[in-house]
């Protein structure tokens, strides 16, 4: 764990130079800041990761959204989306992105490429000090987890790189609050006015007591399980089925990955952010509505050599599937 702003700044700068762009569901540990009313603010106090090997007080999540036409076997099923882990999150080669990267060589496939490109979010922990959510109840353990979008994260990061910031924002006695403010822009939620407080404050006696009693979370425990050989085959199969416009097949995939809120045959519905140590095959689900987030490190499509008539999406999908299957032979 980094013990100074200098260490954090050095690591953030190094990332930029390289171009690197247990609790169960219902415990209310994840604070849904995206549900706060428009025009309101939530004041958060971030605290460190329990993992002393983590230089930052957050961990990065990389997820891929796989849309399906519905759920197989369910009448009048609506389209669903399954979020699956991008294995680049663990330093492995991602079989989905390996395929999708090639699509950006064709400007006509750029839209499809962005649809299946990895989406970033960041997992933090801390206390909610001012809460505009009337129906949100503080759990017994008041240390909450926060799934932070890239838009908010960039504001957090920019302040950390500010040389005028003298103390670690997570310091127990001289830390800073972060205010998440929700507005709208172009019909979408906008958090660009969120900011750090200028005034240092200490943790309250109640907050310090919560850390002493419950301890800090090891944030990496709440990342999706690292896919093994079987899961990688399932991911590839689901990806091809999604591109082909098929329905989600619970009999084939629900023990591995499933849509948010999906009730399996046993009626189970598991949180995507439960500690990985709890189960070797925790199904991954959607946890936050970051549908409008841009894939900020997606490749840029090649410039078109000549004008061409755009193909319908169904034909593009067939072309893409043909490419995938040809490479698999």
Which secondary structure elements does this structure contain, and how are they paired or packed?
Layout: H1 5-18, E1 41-46, E2 59-68, E3 80-85, H2 95-103, H3 110-115, E4 119-130, E5 144-148, H4 150-160, E6 178-181, E7 183-185, E8 188-190, E9 195-196, H5 205-214, H6 229-243, H7 250-253, H8 313-328
Antiparallel strand pairs: 1-4, 1-6, 2-3, 2-4, 4-5, 6-9, 7-8
State the end-to-end CA separation.
46 Å
- The level 1 CATH classification is Alpha Beta
CATH topology: Replication Fork Single-Stranded DNA Binding Protein
Count every helix, treating DSSP H or I runs of 4 or more residues as helices. 8
Q: What is the SS-derived class?
A: alpha+beta
- Roughly what fraction of the amino acids lie in strands? 15-25%
Mean pLDDT: 82
CATH superfamily: Replication Fork Single-Stranded Dna Binding Protein
> Can you give the helix content as a percent range?
25-40%
Number of strands: 9
For the record, the count of structural domains works out to 1
Order of helices and strands: HEEEHHEEHEEEEHHHH
Spatial shape: globular
Low-confidence stretches: 18-26, 266-287
**CATH level-two architecture:** Alpha-Beta Complex
Task: Report Rg.
Answer: 21 Å
Largest sheet: 7 strands, antiparallel
Oligomer: single chain
What does this structure look like?
It is a single chain. 26% of the residues lie in helices and 16% in strands. It has helices spanning 5-18, 95-103, 110-115, 150-160, 205-214, 229-243, 250-253, 313-328; strands at residues 41-46, 59-68, 80-85, 119-130, 144-148, 178-181, 183-185, 188-190, 195-196. β7 and β8 (188-190) form a beta hairpin. The protein has one domain (5-278): Replication Fork Single-Stranded DNA Binding Protein. It is of the alpha+beta class and 329 residues long. The model is unreliable at 18-26 and 266-287 (pLDDT under 50).
